[in-house]
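Troubleshooting entry. The earlier prediction with DQA gave an output that would not parse, so I re-checked the input for stray whitespace and re-submitted. Clean input:
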Amino acid sequence: MTTTIYILNGPNLNLLGQRQPEIYGHETLADVERRCAEVAAEKGFSVRLFQSNHEGTIVDQIHEARQAACGIVINPAAYTHTSVAILDALNTFEGPVIECHISNVHKRESFRHHSYVSLRADGVLAGFGIEGYELAVRRICSLCAGG
Ligand code: DQA
């Protein structure tokens, strides 16, 4: 069994650290990757982080994960609230999926309150800042290890 965890990120998250720092903070996606790699390594797992501004590319990454990953952490960003295609792709993945949002989407505009991805996710984190990714990786490690 593979011990790789995919960490997938949707549109505008390439600008993490520069984009609305009052909401998303000052740390970058490279910081997310470094922190998650450390957490995963403690448990004997590794991570691969991807980001795309394109819905179809994220669908392709989920398809790749079917063979290459034991679990997925996904922050679909704005596609959370719109993408049946990402939901359908996640439904083809057999391992655990954790949905992670940096901000507390429930405290924000009502259009952010609905998530298609939550229909598939085994757990959802929102409002923990980028620490949420670490918590999500920790949980994926436990689930992939059978607990
Ligand atoms: C987000 C919340 C989404 O509503 C938003 O479109 C994002 C980021 C978050 O991490 O808080 O781009 O997923």
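This one parsed fine. The chain has a mean pLDDT of 97.
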